[in-house]
């Protein structure tokens, strides 16, 4: 149990550092950045205390916000996907996911892609809605969600494959 | 009473979600209003320190291009210096007033940002270098933004690539003015709106700051006109301006301090009362 806690603590800080120092400065095609810190929320243990999980997600987003001068947009987006995660889990792994005690390292790729894609799209939509903060620019929000979303899903899948193999 | 407590216990996750969500919304709304982002900004000890140490390493990577920019600036300044000798008398009074009103100091950008809709930059100068809120930030090519939050050693700059904070600018040739806004699309171009329909707008004309706000002096270059059209009401021009600065590649900047800013604000406050 201690090992699990330490792994997630390290992951929390490493993901923030990587996000703000590397992935926030990619700016592919001018504005497309992947937001890989959602991996912490995606791979948080399934059996958990939900209030604590929400609090950690909020702090994770706030950490990223602190570095990128963006108010509370990352905190709000991270919190939303943390709250909506059970729905994504149910959709991707079936309604019995709690009893199967899934290990994220061993699930098949298709379900994993669906799961990450769901979280990413929701996260990016909330994020960019708050960032743009204007109803008249909905097209810009959708455009950013789509392009950054594709980029994030790709990087997240690659990262999760690399790190799940090495820990086995 | 018991039912209320039961309700809270049953829905504690949802209530926690609502609470935290509204906290982050408050932060977001604060960050959208000028000078209000009190808690969440990168000009603090922790984030400023992290960015500073990373920047110390990464600035070696573009030393070459930055040196080139500084060499160009030197050339330009030398040209001004050598060419001004013969007309020193005529501009003498002018330069002394400029020196009195505006004071310049240099700084380095340690965090650049141009991809989001409200971009904030971080400088390695702060209160200890007598930098204050509302000072202007420029490069030799053109304007960058306005100082927002200041800590002891760092300061954040609201970039001109920002959808919330318009800056006054004018056509260099005719003096018709408008306000600079950004549509959030390309970091190379910015929009000049509310220019009177009567203004003779020509593609390729230069846009400069108007000097109507007390932050920037008159005549700091902004960019050239790329294209223009009338707005939906057909009363004002909307002009696309190509910036002189490459906002993706800025490092050495100048901070402009207006010594008369206190006097100007006092005067404005008195006349408002």
Give a brief description.
Chain A is mainly alpha-helical and 168 residues long.
Radius of gyration of chain A in whole Å, from Cα? 15 Å
Biggest sheet architecture of chain B: 6 strands, antiparallel, barrel
What is the molecular shape of chain B? globular
**Mean of residue pLDDT values of chain B:** 82
Helix content of chain B: 25-40%
Look at the helices and sheets of chain A and give the structural class. mainly alpha
Determine the strand fraction of chain A and express it as a percent band: under 5%
The arrangement of helices and strands of chain B along the chain is HHHHHEEEEEEEEEEEEH
- As residue ranges, the low-confidence spans of chain B are 88-98
User: Which structural category do the helix and sheet elements of chain B fall into?
Assistant: alpha+beta
Task: Describe the fold and architecture.
The complex is a heterodimer of chains A (168) and B (273). Chain A is mostly helical and 168 residues long. Chain A has helices at 2-21, 38-42, 50-68, 73-93, 97-100, 109-132, 138-167. In chain A, helix 1 packs parallel to helix 3 (50-68), helix 4 packs antiparallel against helix 6 and helix 6 packs antiparallel against helix 7. By secondary structure, chain B is an alpha+beta fold. Chains A and B meet through helix 3, helix 4 and helix 6 of A and helix 2, helix 3 and strand 2 of B.
């Amino acid at each position: 149990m201690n090992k699990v806690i330490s792994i997630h603590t390290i992951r929390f800080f490493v993901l923030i550092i990587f996000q703000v120092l590397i992935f926030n400065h990619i700016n592919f095609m001018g504005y497309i950045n992947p937001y890989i810190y959602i991996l912490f929320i995606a791979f948080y243990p399934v059996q958990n205390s939900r209030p604590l999980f929400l609090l950690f997600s909020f702090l994770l987003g706030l950490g990223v916000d602190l570095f990128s001068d963006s108010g509370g947009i990352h905190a709000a987006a991270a919190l939303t996907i943390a709250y909506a995660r059970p729905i994504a889990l149910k959709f991707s792994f079936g309604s019995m996911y709690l009893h199967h005690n899934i290990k994220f390292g061993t699930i098949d790729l298709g379900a994993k892609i669906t799961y990450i894609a769901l979280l990413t799209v929701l996260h990016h939509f909330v994020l960019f809605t708050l960032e743009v903060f204007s109803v008249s620019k909905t097209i810009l929000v959708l455009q950013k969600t789509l392009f950054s979303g594709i980029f994030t899903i790709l990087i997240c899948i690659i990262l999760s494959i690399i790190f799940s193999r090495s820990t086995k | 009473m018991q039912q209320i407590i039961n309700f809270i216990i049953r829905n504690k996750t949802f209530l926690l979600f609502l609470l935290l969500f509204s906290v982050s919304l408050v932060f977001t709304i604060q960050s959208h209003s000028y000078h209000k982002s009190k808690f969440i900004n990168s000009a603090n000890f922790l984030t400023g320190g992290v960015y500073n140490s990373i920047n110390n390493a990464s600035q070696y990577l573009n030393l070459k291009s930055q040196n080139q920019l500084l060499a160009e600036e030197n050339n330009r300044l030398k040209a001004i210096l050598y060419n001004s000798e013969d007309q020193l008398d005529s501009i003498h009074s002018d330069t002394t007033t400029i020196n009195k009103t505006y004071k310049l100091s240099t700084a380095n950008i340690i965090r650049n940002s141009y991809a989001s809709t409200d971009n904030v930059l971080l400088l390695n100068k702060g209160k200890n270098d007598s930098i204050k809120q509302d000072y202007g930030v420029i490069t030799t090519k053109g304007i960058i933004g306005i100082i927002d939050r200041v800590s002891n050693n760092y300061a954040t700059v609201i970039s001109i690539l920002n959808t919330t904070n318009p800056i006054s600018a004018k056509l260099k040739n005719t003096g018709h003015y408008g306000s600079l806004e950004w549509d959030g699309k390309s970091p190379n171009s910015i929009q000049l709106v509310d220019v009177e329909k009567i203004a003779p707008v020509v593609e390729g004309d230069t846009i400069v700051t108007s000097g109507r706000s007390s932050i920037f002096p008159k005549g700091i270059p902004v960019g050239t006109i790329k294209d223009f059209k009338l707005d939906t009401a057909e009363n004002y021009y909307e002009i696309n301006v190509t910036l002189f600065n490459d906002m993706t590649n800025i490092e050495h900047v100048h901070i402009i301090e207006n010594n008369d800013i206190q006097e100007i604000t006092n005067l404005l406050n008195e006349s408002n009362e």
